[in-house]
Structure formats: structure tokens, C-alpha cells
């Protein structure tokens, strides 16, 4: 097979169906950009989980005098020194505990004033109304239930709170958005495949005389199909290149420059360039193989070769 013939046929096919070729490129670019974006979103969520779950604490809040009057969990009165010592001793014995930090009422009051000093409630609070607490760093953040079982309902304990629950709601929302992007991506891929099949069939129909002559002179099926398959592959590859460029530009302007989220949101550990660059070969390979395979199966039925 002469390469010059195949290349010339590819050029002819792309020019003849310029509008449909452009539609294929756009649909492939959008669907693969969403595909790459969903993969990067998964990496970002996993990175954030690893970063934040390593920092979350379990907090054991102790009863104060105010709680003894209003909270059923503190019906037996404010926590005593013996109860505090016993809770601390039990915490230090637990294998799931990494370290324990004590926050006094004065420290809790200071932290509250720092965070909510502008609140109208802040001016009416006094240190003795704040709760003492133990902030526990777990070796495995998933072991919160062990802490809840051990300390919920104990004398002197008002509540056991897990910061991981707050993060789970956030990550649940991010995962939901990611699955929505994947659903849109799947729809766009179906549209792209339908456009590829129709484009190939239109191209084959417009050159039916040439293909008929090639069959009569004994040309092989692959020889006849190759230009059409490569047309679809080239259009898909262009779309894949556009998708890769979009991801690189989005990473550059959204995280590093432009919006510069990496500077404005210091609390978020953003994925690096390595995560983006490792996805590009997969996107390019998909953009090449998907149209080629779609064209191959469409032509087998249409050309009957």
C-alpha cells in the first residue's frame, strides 16, 4: 500500500466532509476533556482526603456548670478532676490514639474570641461557660467509632465529635460532582461515536465508485478501509490534542496563574503537574483508538468487504 495514496485519500475525505469532521473534533475534544477532568478530579479528591484526614481530630467535650443545668448528658453535674484524669488515662492506653491535647476553658474562650470575636454572642460569653475538651489525633481516622463507643455516655462527657464527618460531607459533594461530569462525558462520547460513524459512512458513500472499482480489481478489504479509518483516527487525534491543550491551559490558569487558586486557597493541597501530564498519553491513545475502531466496525457492515 502506498503511503502517498492513503494520505491523499485522508486529505480528500477530511475536506469533503469538513463540517462533520469539525463536529467530530469538537465532540471528541469535549468528551475527552471531561474524561481527563474527571480523572484529575478523582486524584484531587484523593489528595485532599490524604491531606485532611491526616489532620482531623476527635474531640471529647467535657461537661461544665452550664451544661449540668441544660444538657441531659451532663445531668450528673460538671466534670470532676477525677473523671478528667480517668478519661485522660484511658485515652493514653488506647492503641488507636496517636496523641492527646488538652484544651482548657480559658484556651477555648481565647480560640472562640479569635474566630468569632465579631459575633454578638461573643461579648456575653465568659471563660467558665466554655467547655474543656480533649483533642485526639487517631492513628487511623476511620477508627472514630471506637472513641464514640468508649466515651459517649460516660460521666463528665458532654459529647464526642468527629471532624471527619464534616469532611465526608464535603468529599461526598465533590464525588457527586465528579460522577455528574462522568455522566456528561459518557453522553458526549456516545454523540462523538455517532458522529464518527455517520461521517465515515457519508465519506464512503461519496466515494462509492472508487471503492467499487477497487473491489473489482481485487483490492483487499483493509486496503479499501484504511483511508476511511485513518480519516476518523486523524480527526479524533486532533480532538484529543485539543482536549490535552484544554487540560494543560486549565491547570495553568486556574491553579498556578490567572485565578491562582494555589495562592488564594492555601488550605487545599492541589494536584501537581505530574498528575496532569500522566493523563495526556491516555487521552491521546483514546482519541486515536476510539474513532479508528468505530470506523472499522461501521465500514465492515457498510462496505461489505
TrEMBL record:
Keywords assigned by UniProt, alphabetized: Cell cycle, Cell division, Cell membrane, Membrane, Transmembrane, Transmembrane helix
Matching Gene3D superfamilies: 3.30.70.3040
Domain ABC3 transporter permease C-terminal residue range list: 183-301
Alphabetical list of PANTHER family matching this protein: CELL DIVISION PROTEIN FTSX
Primary localization: membrane
Annotated protein name in UniProt: Cell division protein FtsX
Family named by the database record: Belongs to the ABC-4 integral membrane protein family. FtsX subfamily.
Job description of the protein: Part of the ABC transporter FtsEX involved in cellular division.
Location in the cell: Cell membrane
InterPro entries: ABC3_permease_C, FtsX, FtsX_actino, FtsX_ECD
GO cellular component labels: plasma membrane
Organism: Streptomyces cadmiisoli
Record's subunit section: Forms a membrane-associated complex with FtsE.
Annotated FtsX extracellular domain residues: 56-160
Topology of the protein relative to the lipid bilayer: Multi-pass membrane protein
Coiled-coil positions: none
Transmembrane segments: 21-41, 179-200, 221-254, 280-299
GO biological process: cell division
Amino acid at each position: 500500500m502506498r503511503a502517498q495514496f492513503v494520505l491523499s485519500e485522508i486529505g480528500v475525505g477530511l475536506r469533503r466532509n469538513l463540517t462533520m469532521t469539525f463536529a467530530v473534533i469538537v465532540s471528541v475534544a469535549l468528551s475527552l476533556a471531561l474524561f481527563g477532568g474527571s480523572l484529575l478530579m478523582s486524584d484531587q479528591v484523593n489528595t485532599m482526603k490524604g491531606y485532611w484526614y491526616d489532620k482531623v481530630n476527635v474531640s471529647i467535650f467535657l461537661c461544665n456548670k452550664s451544661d449540668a443545668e441544660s444538657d441531659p448528658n451532663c445531668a450528673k453535674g460538671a466534670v470532676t478532676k477525677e473523671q478528667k484524669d480517668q478519661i485522660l488515662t484511658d485515652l493514653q492506653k488506647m492503641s488507636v490514639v496517636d496523641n492527646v491535647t488538652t484544651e482548657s476553658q480559658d484556651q477555648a474562650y481565647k480560640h472562640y474570641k479569635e474566630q468569632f470575636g465579631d459575633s454578638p454572642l461573643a461579648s456575653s460569653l465568659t471563660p467558665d461557660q466554655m467547655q474543656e475538651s480533649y483533642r485526639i489525633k487517631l492513628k487511623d481516622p476511620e477508627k472514630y467509632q471506637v472513641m464514640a463507643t468508649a466515651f459517649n455516655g460516660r460521666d463528665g462527657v458532654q459529647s464526642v465529635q468527629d471532624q471527619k464527618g464534616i469532611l465526608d460531607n464535603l468529599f461526598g459533594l465533590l464525588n457527586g460532582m465528579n460522577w455528574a461530569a462522568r455522566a456528561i462525558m459518557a453522553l458526549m462520547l456516545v454523540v462523538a461515536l455517532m458522529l464518527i460513524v455517520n461521517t465515515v459512512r457519508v465519506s464512503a458513500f461519496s466515494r462509492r465508485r472508487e471503492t467499487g472499482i477497487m473491489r473489482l480489481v481485487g483490492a483487499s478489504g483493509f486496503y479499501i478501509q484504511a483511508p476511511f479509518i485513518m480519516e476518523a483516527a486523524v480527526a479524533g487525534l486532533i480532538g484529543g490534542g485539543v482536549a490535552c491543550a484544554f487540560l494543560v491551559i486549565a491547570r495553568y490558569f486556574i491553579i498556578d496563574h490567572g485565578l491562582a487558586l494555589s495562592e488564594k486557597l492555601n488550605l487545599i493541597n492541589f494536584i501537581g503537574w505530574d498528575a496532569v501530564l500522566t493523563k495526556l498519553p491516555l487521552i491521546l491513545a483514546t482519541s486515536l483508538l476510539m474513532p479508528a475502531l468505530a470506523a472499522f466496525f461501521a465500514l465492515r457492515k457498510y462496505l461489505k468487504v
